[in-house]
Amino acid sequence: MYLIEKAKTEILLALKAALNKTYTPTFDDLESPKDGKMGDVAFPCFRLAKGMGRNPAEVASEYAAKILPRDLVREARAVGPYINFFMNIDAVAADSNKQISLLKSKYGENHGTKRTVMFEYSGLNTHKPSHVGHLRNQLFGASVVRLMRSQGIKVIAADFVNDLGLHVAQWLWCYKTYHFGEKPPKTELGKWMSGIYTEAVKKYEEMGTAKEAVMDVLKKLQHGDKETMKLWKETRKWSLKEFDAFHEELGAKFDTFYAESDFVEKRMKIVEKLLDKKIAIQSEGAIIVNLEDVGLGIFVILRTDGTALYSTTDLALAIQKFEDYKIDASYVATDARQKQHFASVFEILKRLGYKKEMIHVAYEFVTLPEGAMSSRKGTVILYEDFRNELISVARAETKSRHLDWSEKNINKVAHAIAFGAMKFEILKQDPDKVITFDIKSAMSFDGFSGPYLQYTAARINGIVKKTKAPKKGTKSALVRDENERELIWELAKYPEVARLAALELKPSIIAHYLFKIAKLFAAFYESVPVSTSSDGERALHLSVLSDLKTVLENGLALLGIEVVKEM
Length: 567
Hints:
By secondary structure, this protein is α/β, with parallel strands linked by helices.
């Protein structure tokens, strides 16, 4: 049991003894006070007072007086309508330090959950460029997988590639018509493929004959035309090669891989089944499912020319996952614009009698200060260009700070800072918030940013390294500094924070927590002379800094952010 759980259990026992069956409090009743100086844990008395027909503040005052100190609880005090608990911080510090020192990189993990799930993310389209807009899915998905695994959930990370849609037919038509025989460049492959795709879309929309020609390519693709498939296979490899490099750089790792091309026959069987059960009907030459009765409109599963849509594939894919793996639930992470699409997919499967747990995890899109991006219009910022710009900024900043460093060391640290900035700027936002990625803000060394946290970790490492260790056997002094007291309690809360982030699928909870403890460290270090304190005080301070370093590293690891020893 983590110390935070032990402390809250003690608080609940104290409350139950004081309330004497008037009300039975639970963990869900306990809150964190908005101001840490007003207490460590708060119990709101609103519900209790309502049941008694009394004023909450009066009830809080009456029952706080009945609560006696315990091992970890130093005092209970009425603060308005709340009973606020102040912890015995010296006991907390000793207990917490033992746990963190023992568990190290595993501090914050839980292994009581017996659940296996599949989490699908990434979802890139072959023959299209990897751009800034794709970053959120990669980074969010990879972080959520780490969060869930840290809480004992067995996660099968899955990638699904759309390699057979209309966009592929457009690209192939344009390549064959205007670029046939061209070989992909050894560098900037994504930029080259992006140029052809943008050209294809423009011609498709402007040329009267292009649409018919593209649809002919799509039919040949979906019916396995030998010549078309040969070109498709070769050009598909180019995209997959770029995807592998993209995923590796961002730390997105997968246990299984699906592609739309795997479901050509399976999705047609789904269509037949839907028609047989009269769930789907023909309408003006197309095959549709009418979901207007549940507010989801008309769902098209086959076009009038008989070609399938990605919606048809999603039906087959959802079923295939449960056939391939013994999973309790299937998660799919996509941007929020596909909410209705997946609600429709799940509703159709429900009508087929398929009662599996399927969850769509939605997030909002990423834009830049210049405005929204579109690969169709060619207005995207390619990932390669964006990454290189971040590294360039990080390199210039690192070099200005360390004129004596070697080029190799500068490049290594700059790479870590650039990716730390990229990942944190994406993950610090709640999934339901649109992200406007600002490079200046993301690269800040003194704001709510990845480099600030990396710098904090490096700074702590330097302080510990330079501070003279106390004599062996020195007993730690009592906690006196208020900032240090608050920091100790926050470090004890980390397992609870990690659990909540995994439960709510929100890496942003980890990001905000890490920023909070980094600010507490800055305030603590400003007020406490660590290196010149007495042996007993130094023993305490160094143990707190060691614990802080471990928690920072563990939290940053969940976000996929590298810690550097010096910045």
